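Please, structure for the following, as tokens.
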Amino acid sequence: MVIPSNDPQVIAEVAKLNDVRVIVAAGGASRAQSVRNGLRSIRSVNWVAVHDAARPLISQDLIDSILTAAVKHGAAAPALPIALTVKQAAGPLPARVHRTVPRQDLWAMQTPQIMRRTDLMQAFDNCPLPLEDITDDVQLLELSGKDVWLVPGDERNLKITTTTDLRVADLLCVS
């Protein structure tokens, strides 16, 4: 396991584990830069699963379904259908609506996103965008022309970024 971080507390906690299987790599200025730093710290694996630490409720079943699809297709990630109506408008709000985006083909991405390590490294090396513009790991593969397959995500695999998310996670852990 590789944890990209520059946080001294995270580094100290990992050191306390005294486990050679857990590596701390330098964190980057963006998510993509942190992932790239993490990838550079490993060489002996064929497949990588990039996962948000903010998604602690991941299930083994979901990991298994993503890995199965990744091995079959080269890369896979979990996703949930967009349930909300999405409007396009130039922000900040208040702002005039430009259009309603059809949602039947839109998916909300989750992690882990699993792919061949060599494909991801090559995608980083050939990325046509600044890394700070990359918001999703499999986006790099898309930009390099590689196929990415989606598998059904899990609503319990929520990303905890607000106090409301934390409350929902607490409720899910109790049930």
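Residues 120 and 141 are 6 Å apart (CA to CA). The chain has a mean pLDDT of 96.
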